[in-house]
Design brief:
By secondary structure, the protein is an alpha/beta fold. It is 45% helix and 10% strand.
């Protein structure tokens, strides 16, 4: 998580996602090459680390053969929680993340973040990204079919609705 998201951002979809998921953690920084915890996770032989980040060589979560590629290791996904501009900078500054295999989505999802303008149609909030990642990992067999991520979108939609109501009250409409 970029420090701006950690300490100044009021919407906090990365924090909401982390609070909703077992075994997730937030690591704050702008660059992670010198981060002891990130190094530890990447070097842990029980994990198959990947980064959720679009790119030419990204594997689609829905169709990637994790069993064949992971060597029986547990999937570990790094997500960059920041604005898109800051996420690009975080990726650029973190060679350790650049070297990881990338995950992306096989479908074009659109953000429901009504109070915030996304820079492109494919740009999602962190909590939406987690929701769609789990949906696609269910299809690929990595997540059990009974895993239900719908609570993530429920929380997100409640947050957006609350923010819209606050905006209406503030501008008097």
């Amino acid at each position: 998580m970029h420090p701006w998201e950690a300490y100044k951002q009021k919407t906090g979809t990365g924090r909401l996602a982390s609070l909703s998921l077992e075994n997730s953690e937030i690591i704050v920084g702008k660059s992670f090459d010198q981060n002891r915890r990130v190094k530890q996770l990447i070097q842990d032989s029980s994990y198959y680390p990947m980064v959720l980040y679009p790119g030419e060589n990204a594997c689609f979560a829905e169709t990637f053969n994790f069993e064949e590629n992971s060597g029986g290791r547990k999937l570990l996904v790094f997500l960059l929680d920041a604005t898109w501009v800051l996420a690009r900078k975080m990726m650029y500054r973190s060679k350790c993340l650049q070297e990881l295999p990338r995950l992306s989505f096989s479908r074009a999802y659109r953000s429901e973040f009504a109070i915030k303008t996304q820079p492109a149609d494919y740009c999602l909030s962190t909590i939406e990204s987690v929701y769609y990642l789990i949906q696609e990992l269910r299809k690929s067999g990595v997540c059990p079919k009974e895993t239900d991520p719908s609570g993530l979108l429920d929380i997100f939609r409640m947050m957006v609705s609350f923010q819209q109501e606050c905006r209406k009250k503030r501008i008097g409409t």
